[in-house]
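Consider the following assembly input.
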Amino acid sequence: MASANRKYTPSGSGRMTVARSRGALVIVLVLLSLLCVRFAYLQLFDPKDYRTQALDQYTSSVTIPAKRGAIYANDATTELAVSATVYNCFISPFDIEDDAQLNKIADGLSTILSVDRNEIIEKGNKKKTKYQIIKKFLSETEEQAVRAFISENEFVGIINLEETTKRYYRYGSFAAHLLGFTGSDNQGLSGLESTYDEYLAGVDGKSVKAADAYGNELDSGVGSTYIPATDGMSVVTTLDWTIQNTVEKYVRQAYEEHQPNGRVQCIVMDVNNGELLASAIYPSFDLNNYNNLSELYQQKYDTFIGTDDERSEYRTELLYEMWNNTNASQTYEPGSTFKIITSAIALEENAVSFETSTFNCVGAYTIAGTKIHCHKIAGHGTQRFSEALVNSCNPAFIQIGTAIGTTTFKKYFDEFGYTQVTGSDIVGEASSIYYGTTGAQFQALELAIYSFGQTFKVTPIQHIRAVSAVANGGYLVVPHAVKSLVDKDGNVVKTFEYESSRQVISTDTCNKIITSLTNSTKNASVSGYNIVSKTGTSEKRDTVREDDYISSCVSFAPAEDPQIAVLVLVDDPTGGQHFGSAVAAPIVANILGETLPHLGITPNKDEETTIALSEYREMSVEKAKQKIEELGLKCVVRGNGETVTEQLPSAGTVISKDGVVILYTEGATPEVNVKVPNVLNYSPTNAIKTILNSNLNVSIKGIFNNDFTNCKVISQSVSAGESVLPGTVIELEFLYEEAIE
Amino acid sequence: MASNGIQKAKSSAVAPKKRSVGGTQNRIYRMIGEVDRPLLIVVIALVCIGSVMIFSASYAVSDSRFGDSYYFARSQIRWVIIGITAMILLSRIDYAYYKQLAYLIYGVVLALNFTVPIFGVNHKGATRWFNIMGMEFQPSELLKFALVLAIATYISEHPNQMRDWKKGVVPVMLLTGPACLATFTQNHMSATIILFLLGMMMLWLSGTKSFYFGVLIGFVAVMAVFAFTVGRPLLEKFVPQVFTRLEIWEDPFAYMSYETGGAGWQPAQSLYAISSGGFWGLGLGQSNQKHGYLPEPQNDYIFAILSEELGFFGVVCVIVLFAVLAYRGYHISKNSPNRFCSLLSMGIVAQVIIQVMLNLAVVTNTFPSTGISLPFFSYGGTSLLILLAEMGIVLSISRYSFVERG
């Protein structure tokens, strides 16, 4: 049947239709292929990155802020800086319906947050945006008020609070210049906050969520990621909370006493490893309000006269000045304190003999045609090396410097680290200014002047480092303020190691200098300890005014096994005194007097000069009197009774061995009837005698020997003319008017 | 097809229903009663994929609009069932009836189209729909079929006049012109373009002089170049809507925002969706763009969602299915018993393929955005019904085809 089919032959036009159909089919297949190519172009190559744009469109990314690490004192527990969770307030103008709503928002937020209303309106009109910060770091009350405002008016999604962290400095101005502060985005801007920012900051996390066009979360989960924040590590500083507080207390006190035009600065460093135990500058500022001028700067600003622009510029200038950590970022002429180093070089190189060399001083010395005066016009006469050092005799040091020679001096100047920054972790260390940087020639005259610490400038941190080398047996350490990093559980993550094996001078040389300078500066002395000190009074040669000095004192203790070095400098004191020995040395003594016991360094057991009183009440007068006089104390009896009913000072009071005890018997009672005599400016002997004669007791602040001369009372704990109980202990403070710079 | 020894049998509407058996190899047998199975499979496959995609693309928008994720899907499935039934029924009906009714159908449908602007319902500023007992349908869908049918009838009745301008070309244009005018008055640009292309397609198949097409293509090319070069300021001045449309086409991303009218939003989101797909896609149902970003994801831009979910792989699969559909259309046409069948089947398949190509060109922003639905995929019940019915007619023709015995 099939074979019987007749053949169908399309007519001419029919064949044409088939041919045309085939043509159309070919065109269709070609066009469909081209469409495939188009799809391939979009889907496989995506050259315009539509995929990312799409992803951006349906995902919203929320930053999960990393918590900034804390800054601890050297005990790793005292928090100096911590970050706390607070909230920022922002609005989403995109979601604001109309002007009426915006006005309501502006009214509400400007009242709650004390933000300018127009500013809110302006931000709210950026209608395409979804994120306009209104205020950062809301206080707790502000935060709660905003929350209430949101829920009252159903502004969810329009007014938003985002979590962030704010830096808090527990002790405000504590080591402010050294610690530094963070900016509004929690980035470290200055000080240790800046140096260790990479460790402290941590890494912000991110939460990406996919949402549909109406803001509902998509459960498909495509594009959603959650990267948790990595909290920053905490920094353990080398700062000792107690020492820093002590230093700050005395630096402030010194500022008030000496009214310097500049600042009072102090560094306390561990001589053996370069750890900074304290670093203080006064006037300071409050780290929690670092953008506010502190009181003294505010006073300067208030008295400034100028246009608004000039005033704002001046304010900025003052802020930078206030923040400046001049312990590291400003140079000064070390003056006579540098003689320690000159001595070290000379002894190390055997340029002079410690035992046999003598140096003559006639009040001036002429070198290379220039006459240089000694501070003692009459001259020191012939001195051995250690005498010249203690006398701080410039002519002697000119001779010592000349004996060293320029080449050797330069070599040691470099080795003591004066030509380079110390490599500490303190930001903004200044470069020193010396022959190498000024381009000035360095010959006999220049060397002579360098020998007593003038015409070159170094940073305090460089200087205390060099002096520490003399203290620790000759090793140059790297000053630093951070010793380790710890994670949030307190485990040590990283310990910072600093090179301290470079020996600049021999231990023998160090010992000779220590021997010479031990307790040589009487104002820097501390009872029970041997202190090695050198004071300096350097002329500020770059100021217009004459008689512009920096009074400084550098000390280390105890002399037997030096542990800590202290450098104090008072920039241009105006309180009448300007000698380093009178201005800076007492500050050092005060600091060391509290710091050495705190560090567990026990005082030497000298011959007892004080005595703690026993209980004499209920004893018979006769027996009590006998016992008191056995101790070498003076005994005064009031009343005619048989037994002692009252004693002054009371039992337990510590008085000097030549003190007085007043015993009362029946019928006699203690009366506030002793007028304190004036002993200010008295010599020690006269002062003590005067007070004892008034039936009062004396205690002496600092070290005191009867053979100290050129010494006078500068303060008495109870003012003259006041009435006190008999036997009251009056504390006296002496100042030695040493004939040295 | 195979070269030598091909024998073809003349078909007949009254052919025996029994399948012939035996015979020598490479003989051609009439297979009356058997529809073209590959075409049927392709159509069913497309309808199935389309239905799945309708659900995937629409559930989010259904849910937000009606609170019922299945709203669109359920409605579409209902129409799929009706449509398949119609297809099977029509595949059983002798095509010869259509030829007899061709001009009548054309006239009625044309009339319907002209009255749509008066009696129709308005959606988004265009009046293209009739509402009959709650069901909306676009008479322009029927018009495409009616036009193909009318032209095929004319050509098959005047097989030897087609190379003649007056007796061949002009009558076809007289049929095409009013159809285009009718949809133009509905402000239905895409339908006008499709009708015009269909008219040209039929003219091409009629075997008229290639020269005319050369002139036409040349004219279109010159106009296109003109529109993009010197004519551009003129466009801006005299037909700003066309000008804006071209601007949006060039950079839809610049017209996404509310301020710029948002006309670039849909093509831009479509590009986002397609590009997001990559090679394997995000996975069925995993589109993000359908969640309110790409508007009306179940309609004209459904293929963008398919691209996003099934990736380049899925795209190629679907395009291959359409290519097979085109090929089967050609095959059926080539083996059809007469000129009318040949033209009608080719015309119907061409209508589907033209829409497919235009739609894919629009979703990839290869062609300016215009409302062209994707056959078998886009949501729309009556449209699917008409489409499946047309497939039924092609299948009906295929029953009378000659096929090679393998």
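Chain B touches chain A through 67 residues (CB under 8 Å). Ask yourself how this observation constrains the way the partners meet.
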